[in-house]
From TrEMBL:
Signal peptide: 1-22
GO term, biological process aspect, one: carbohydrate metabolic process
PROSITE patterns, alphabetized: PROKAR_LIPOPROTEIN (PS51257)
GO molecular function, a single term: hydrolase activity, acting on glycosyl bonds
Name the UniProt record assigns to this protein: Six-hairpin glycosidase-like protein
Annotated keywords: Glycosidase, Hydrolase, Signal
SMART domains, per database record: DUF1237 (SM01149)
Amino acid sequence: MSINLRKIYVAIITLFSASATALSCPDYTTYSQSPQGNPSAGPLRLPFMRPAPECRTFNSSVVENVIGDMKARMKDPDLARLFENTFPNTLDTTIKYFDPEKNLAFIITGDITAQWLRDTANQLAVYKPLLSYDRNLQALFKAVINNEARYVSQFPYCGSFQPPPESGLSPSHNDWADGVTVNPPVNNEVVFECKYEIDSLCGFIKLSRGYFEATGDSSIINNNCTRRNAIDQIFRVIWEQSQGSFDEKFNFISYYNWTGGIGALSPAVDNGGNGEPKAYTGLVGTHHRPSDDLSVFAFLTPANAMLSVELTHLADMLDKVGQLKNVSMLARQYSSTISKAIWDTTVVNNIFAYETNGFGGRYVMDDANVPSLLSLPYLEFLSRTDPAYVATRNLLLSRGNPYFAAGKTFTGIGGPHVNAWHPWPMSQISAIFGTDDDVEITNSLYLLANNTANLGLIHESQSIYDYNDYTRPWFAWANSYFAEMILDLAQRKPHIIFSDDTAYIPGSGV
């Protein structure tokens, strides 16, 4: 038996063993709502929130090595505990199905048993530097990409999905999809929720190109009809959603619409489920935001910024493997058009609008979910020192942003998904990615550490009035995003989290 086959065999046996013990493992939604293991040695005394090794859904010695390296160097034991809990959270708790032989995997968001394209890309991004050191982790990424290519090929306007039939897992019922009319129609045995968010397709590209950048494995493209069809579908959506709402004869053009009916939990949407009309600008419209909330205006600036960046990465990947030259050229053309439209149509007096409509309408605000305006440097759209970003950032972190809120213990940006007085910790993570100021970084770090309701995990939102009032105890994306930020500081600003100024690169100690 070859080494690679043996590793696959061991992975399968490990998975079967995990399944056998899963019956005695606690549900993590419940587990995450009360303090568990021994507290940290710092003043916050944060609990150890990882499940027992036999209850973890994926195990990686490389991930454990990084945790050990970071714990040994981090000077604050509370921050170290927060990293120890958050960094492995996706692997520990959300890999509901993985079969390396079938090249399929199903990853949930946490306390919602569905796979979101956006969440998955962000949940896994933190492990990208480790792929070249861990074959099983590499196989997991590849299996996720393969499964998502099937989703995108079939339902490119949808963002969250049910388990693949090969998994044997039953589809989940989504109450919020009851009574909702979606066009094009969807199959609820495959689709969990079909809200169209352009950043979901960006997430699929991000995950795919990140895997390629880390591994050089071109098999996700070469002779892969499903993957190529997924790319074709992405470009179909880009073209359709960049068109104006009316043609030259004022025929109303609709390629996708979504609306709740009478008695549905989800809201009715104006104009036959199409939302506010839009005029052509070069930007790509979206029906919903990354928060899954309805857009006010169709052209979401940060989602278009992410799309512009990811299309360039897609073109780079295709060029490196010598595949699909026509697609590479189209990706670069769209990337350039979108970037120019952002600068030409969304920036006024050095301030980015969050949403525009092509008719002069602008909505100046920000939502915590990434892609956000605050996260533009994280998205690689611009630098932290860009004057328009600095000016916009200052406005967003002030009363000038209707979804900025400040209380005695927590401050940040939220959104309508919860309410205006529940900012999201995710916004403080984006704020750290967006600055080089040590004081600002430190302040944001401790706002995060001090607001976990003594549970040692990053939650969806946090009340500015009540320390114990938060939403989503198990939100894997937020946990991964926090850990990704800590690892960024370990390289960019090591003196803030370590006792010395020596940078740490994940995997360097493997």
